[in-house]
C-alpha cells in the first residue's frame, strides 16, 4: 500500500461496535415481515424487451402493464440510455446492438413515437452500426417473434434435438440438450418451439413501421441468409467457431424438410411437455426471466385460451422491480433466500446477535419455509432433473430450483441461528432436514472434486463450441466453480463440526477432493477467478474460506499466503479495494479507473484476509481497510450503493443491492470478534 491518505491509528472496539449497531439497526428496517430482505436484482437490459414483446404479441400488454407500469418502464429506459444513444448489455456496459435494438422496440411498443429524442438517438446508433441485422442471436429471435425480422435470418434452433438419444454411449448423446446447463437448456427449449412453429405476432402498423426503422436497407432487400451470422463487434464476446458455421448451414438446409413435417410435430409436442413440466414445477415462475416469457409465449401459441397461458400472467410481476431509476425486469424473481442467508451469517458474525432477536427470528422463518421439501415429480432422469429434497433455492419456495451453494448457505444460516442464545428464537429446522440438505450437497460434487450450480456437470467443455449466443461465455454445460465449491465445503465442514457422526467418512473425503479442486483452480499469482461476483476479490473470499475450513491458514499453507499477498498487492491508497467489472470479461484483474475503492470489495478482502488468518502479519493494512469501511458508513447506518457487483456468463452484470449492507456488517463483525476478540 502506498500513500498516507488513509487516517492512521487503529479503530477502537467502541468505534467498530457502534458502527455495527447502527449498520444492523438500519438494515433490519429493510426486512419484510416474512423475514427476507427485498432488493433490486436488475442490471441486464435485455430482459424487459422479452416481456414487453411477449405481452404485445399475445395481446395482453395493457391488461398486464398498467399505464403506471408502462410509464415507469419508459422512465427506466430513458435513464439507462448511454450518452452515445445506445444501450449496453447491462446498465454499466458500453452500447451494444442487442441492448439498443431491443430497448428501441420496447420504447416504441410502450408508445414512444419514433421522433422522440430518446428514440431518435437510439435509432441513429442502430443505423450507424449496421442496422438490426447485426443484433446477436437472441435479439434476432425476439425481433422475429415481433415480426420485424425474418426467421430465415436466424440460425436454426430445431426442436428435433430433443428427440436425440440421451445415453452417453451413443456419442451424440453427449450433446443432448438434457446435458446442458439448466439455464441454457431452459432457454433453448421454448425457443426451439417458437422457432419450430414460427411463432410470430400480427403484422400491425407498428411492426410495419419498425421494419422501416431498424434496417439500413429496405426490409425486402435484406439478405437474410447473410444476416444469420452478422453480429456487431460491440456485441461479440464469444465469436462462432468455424464448426458452427458448418453446423448451422447444414441445419438451415435441413429446415426446408423439417418445417411442417410429422417429425417436427412430434418434436414440438415433446418440447411442450417439458415446457409444461417446468411451468408447473415452478408454479409458473420459471427458472429465469428469459424462459419465463418464452414459456408463456409457447403456451399462448399452443392455445391462446389455455389455462397455462392465463396462469403465467400473475407471475410476471414476480420479476418486476421499481426503483429510483424506474421499473425494470429483474434477472430472477429476486435473490431473497440468498440475501437472507448472508444477512443471517453477517449478523451472527458480529457477536451482537442477541441484540437483534426479532430480526433473526423472522429471518429464520424465511429460511425455514423456503427449503425445498420434496423432489420434482419423477422419473427425474426423464425430465433431466436433479434431486431437490432438502435443497434451498436462490429466491423463493415457489421457484424451487435447487442450487448447490444456495443449499449450502441455507445450511450455514441454520447452523448459525442454532447458536444464537435467545429464548425467543422459534424452533429451528430439524436435524432430519439438515441431513437432507447434506445429502443434496454431497450428491452435487463433480468428478473433478468441485461443485457446479444447479446440477452435476453432465458433458464435456467441448460442447461450448456450439454456444451460439455470441454475448455469453460458458453457458452450455454446468461447470465446477470456486464459489460453489467453497460454499459446499464450508457448509459440510460446519455441519460436521456440529454433527461429527453423520456420514463422517463421506464428508471427510468430499472435503479433501474439494480442497484439491480449489488448489488446482488457484492461479500462479495467488488469485482465483470469480464467476458470479466481481471478480478476483469475490473469489478470494471464497478461496480463502474453503481452505480455512480444512484447517489451512497462512501459517501452514502456501496457497493461503499467496492468496493474501495477491489481495494486498491490489489494496488502494485509501485502504480499500475497488475492482472493475472488466475483470469478469477479460479474466485479468482490472482496477476501477480512476482508483475508487468500493465498500463491498473492501469487505470481501477483509473477510478473505481474516479467514486466512493474515491479520497479525498485516495489521496496518487491515486497520486501514477497516477504517475505510467505517468512513464510508452513512449517518443512517446504511452504506452507499456503488458499482455493480454481480455477474453471470462472464459478460453480463447484475445488481445485488443488499450486498452494500451485508458485507460491511459481515467484515466489521468478523473483525470485531476474530481480531479485536470482543
Ligand atoms: C444466478 C443467480 C444466483 C447465482 C449464485 C447462487 C450466486 C451463484 O453462486 C451460482 C449461479 C447463480 C445460481 C446464478 C446463475 C445465472 C443466473 C441464473 C443468475 C446470475 C441470475 C440470472 C442468471 C440467468 C442465467 C439470467 C438469464 C440469462 C440467461 C443467459 C439465460
TrEMBL record:
Q: CDD domains, from UniProt?
A: SQCY_1
Q: Which organism is it from?
A: Coccomyxa viridis
What is the protein named?
Terpene cyclase/mutase family member
Q: Residue ranges of the Squalene cyclase C-terminal domain?
A: 335-672
| Family note | Belongs to the terpene cyclase/mutase family.
Give the Pfam families listed for this entry: SQHop_cyclase_C, SQHop_cyclase_N
Gene for this chain = g1522
PANTHER family membership? LANOSTEROL SYNTHASE, TERPENE CYCLASE/MUTASE FAMILY MEMBER
Which domain of life does the UniProt lineage start with?
Eukaryota
Q: Report keywords, A-Z.
A: Isomerase, Repeat
What EC number is given for this enzyme? 5.4.99.-
User: Ranges for the Squalene cyclase N-terminal domain?
Assistant: 26-323
Identify the InterPro entries for this entry.
SQ_cyclase_C, SQ_cyclase_N, Squalene_cyclase, Terpene_synthase_CS, Terpenoid_cyclase/PrenylTrfase
Amino acid at each position: 500500500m502506498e500513500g498516507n491518505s488513509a487516517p492512521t491509528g487503529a479503530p477502537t472496539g467502541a468505534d467498530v461496535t457502534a458502527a455495527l449497531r447502527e449498520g444492523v439497526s438500519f438494515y433490519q428496517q429493510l426486512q419484510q415481515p416474512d423475514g427476507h430482505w427485498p432488493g433490486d436484482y436488475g442490471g441486464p437490459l435485455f430482459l424487459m424487451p422479452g416481456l414487453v414483446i411477449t405481452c404485445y404479441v399475445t395481446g395482453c400488454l395493457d391488461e398486464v402493464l398498467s399505464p403506471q407500469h408502462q410509464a415507469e418502464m419508459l422512465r427506466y429506459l430513458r435513464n439507462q440510455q448511454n450518452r452515445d444513444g445506445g444501450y449496453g448489455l447491462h446498465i454499466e456496459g458500453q452500447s451494444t446492438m442487442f441492448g439498443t435494438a431491443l430497448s428501441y422496440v420496447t420504447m416504441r411498443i410502450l408508445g414512444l413515437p419514433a421522433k422522440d429524442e430518446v428514440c431518435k438517438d437510439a435509432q441513429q446508433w442502430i443505423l450507424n452500426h449496421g442496422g438490426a441485422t447485426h443484433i446477436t442471436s437472441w435479439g434476432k429471435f425476439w425481433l422475429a417473434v415481433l415480426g420485424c425480422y425474418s426467421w430465415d435470418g436466424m440460425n436454426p434452433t430445431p426442436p428435433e434435438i430433443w428427440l436425440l438419444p440421451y445415453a452417453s454411449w451413443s456419442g451424440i448423446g453427449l450433446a443432448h440438450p438434457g446435458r446442458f446447463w439448466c439455464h441454457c437448456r431452459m432457454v433453448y427449449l421454448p425457443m426451439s418451439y417458437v422457432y419450430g412453429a414460427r411463432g410470430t405476432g400480427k403484422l400491425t402498423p407498428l411492426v410495419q413501421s419498425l421494419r422501416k426503422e431498424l434496417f439500413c436497407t429496405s426490409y425486402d432487400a435484406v439478405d437474410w441468409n447473410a444476416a444469420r451470422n452478422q453480429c456487431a463487434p460491440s456485441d461479440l464476446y464469444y465469436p462462432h467457431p468455424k464448426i458452427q458455421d458448418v453446423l448451422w448451414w447444414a441445419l438451415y438446409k435441413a429446415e426446408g424438410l423439417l418445417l411442417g413435417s410429422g417429425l417436427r410435430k412430434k418434436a414440438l409436442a415433446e418440447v411442450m411437455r417439458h415446457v409444461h413440466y417446468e411451468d408447473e414445477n415452478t408454479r409458473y415462475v420459471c427458472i429465469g426471466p428469459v424462459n419465463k416469457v418464452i414459456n408463456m409465449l409457447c403456451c399462448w401459441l399452443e392455445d391462446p385460451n389455455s389455462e397455462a397461458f392465463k396462469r403465467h400472467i400473475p407471475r410476471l410481476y414476480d420479476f418486476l422491480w421499481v426503483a429510483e431509476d424506474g421499473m425494470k425486469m429483474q434477472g430472477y424473481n429476486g435473490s431473497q433466500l440468498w440475501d437472507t442467508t448472508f444477512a443471517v451469517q453477517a449478523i451472527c458474525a458480529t457477536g451482537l446477535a442477541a441484540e437483534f432477536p426479532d430480526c433473526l427470528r423472522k429471518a429464520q422463518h424465511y429460511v425455514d419455509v423456503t427449503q425445498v421439501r420434496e423432489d420434482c415429480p419423477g422419473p427425474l432422469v426423464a425430465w433431466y432433473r436433479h434431486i431437490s429434497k432438502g435443497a434451498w433455492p436462490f429466491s423463493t419456495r415457489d421457484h424451487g430450483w435447487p442450487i448447490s451453494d444456495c443449499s449450502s448457505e441455507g445450511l450455514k444460516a441454520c447452523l448459525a441461528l442454532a447458536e444464537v442464545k435467545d429464548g425467543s428464537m422459534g424452533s429451528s429446522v430439524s436435524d432430519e432436514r439438515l441431513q437432507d440438505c447434506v445429502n443434496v450437497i454431497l450428491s452435487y460434487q463433480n468428478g473433478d472434486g468441485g461443485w457446479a450450480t444447479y446440477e452435476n456437470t453432465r458433458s464435456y467443455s467441448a460442447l461450448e463450441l456450439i454456444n451460439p449466443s455470441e454475448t455469453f461465455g460458458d453457458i452450455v454445460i454446468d461447470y465446477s466453480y470456486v464459489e460453489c465449491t467453497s460454499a459446499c465445503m464450508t457448509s459440510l465442514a460446519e455441519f460436521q463440526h456440529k454433527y461429527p457422526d453423520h456420514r463422517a467418512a463421506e464428508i471427510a473425503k468430499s472435503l479433501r477432493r474439494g480442497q484439491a479442486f480449489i488448489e488446482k483452480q488457484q492461479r500462479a499469482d495467488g488469485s482465483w477467478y470469480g464467476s458470479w461476483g466481481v471478480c478476483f476479490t469475490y473469489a478470494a473470499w471464497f478461496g480463502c474460506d474453503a481452505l480455512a475450513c480444512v484447517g489451512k491458514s497462512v501459517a501452514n499453507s502456501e496457497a493461503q499466503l499467496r492468496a493474501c499477498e495477491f489481495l494486498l498487492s491490489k489494496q488502494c491508497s485509501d485502504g480499500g479495494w475497488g475492482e472493475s467489472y472488466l475483470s469478469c470479461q477479460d479474466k485479468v484483474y482490472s482496477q476501477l479507473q480512476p482508483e475508487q475503492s468500493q465498500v463491498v470489495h473492501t469487505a470481501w478482502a477483509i473477510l478473505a484476509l481474516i479467514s486466512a488468518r493474515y491479520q497479525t502479519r498485516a495489521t496496518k493494512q487491515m486497520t486501514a481497510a477497516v477504517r475505510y469501511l467505517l468512513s464510508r458508513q452513512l449517518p443512517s447506518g446504511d452504506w452507499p450503493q456503488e458499482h455493480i457487483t454481480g455477474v453471470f456468463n462472464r459478460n453480463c452484470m447484475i445488481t445485488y443491492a443488499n450486498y452494500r449492507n451485508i458485507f460491511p456488517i459481515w467484515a466489521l463483525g468478523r473483525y470485531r470478534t476474530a481480531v479485536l476478540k470482543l
